[in-house]
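[User] At your convenience, examine this fold.
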Amino acid sequence: MKNLPDIAEILRNTFYTLISQFVDFVPRVIGCLVILGIGYLVARGVKILVSQILSRVGFDRIGDRLNEIGIIKQLKTEISLSDIVAKIFYYYILLIFLTFAADTLGVDTITNMVLSLVNFIPKLIAGAVMLQIGIMLSDAIKTAVIALCKSFNIASAKLIGYIAFVFFLIITFLTALRQIGIETDMLESSFILIIGGAVAAFAIGYGIASRDVLANIISSFYSRKNYHEGQLIEIDDVKGVIAKIDNTSVTIVNDTTTTIIPLQLFQTKRVVIFN
């Protein structure tokens, strides 16, 4: 008959092993807590220092510019760049000390996870900066498009401006995601299909609805060289002096009336110019 294992010896060895591991692990835990405490104090001090320095040098003016953008106002939030940057420094320093603390514990899984977060933060900052610049650039493009459309008296100038804003904002957002390291191939393909269809539908619908306005704008390029303010003309039984010429119409004034005539009529009607 085989000898049975000595249960008491096994339990004794197991107990001694656990005690040994516990005694070895306790100093590591204490060292980990000390490192985290020091990291918290350092991170908090750097956060306060960075926030005060950026506020004094006027760094928040960029945030004030962002707060004036319509989409930011609709979110009912206020951006303070000095606080955001200070918090980024705060959490970044905490993660660095957390890496040291995890390394002190000797748990490779936790250490690798924290290192991944530490390496991810610079990419996140770069993506956030790119998104911020993109929002400001998109807003500038929107303003320019609205001003250009209004100068040509194009209807729905604000709608066209907001479409341009959203278009460039989505492009910036996808670029920022790629900078962070997120795959955007599927999103880009979907975006191209959706935008392509929307632009085509808008162009057709808007072209049909605004054909008269576009005809007047095109006519202005041919009419300006033949007509000028102060000229006495007669068109479509209306005789008078040209008081104003804009991109879509001509204002004719006589002793009794003021008549606004679309520019496209100057290409299809008989016009008499009096010397």
Summary: The radius of gyration is 35 Å.
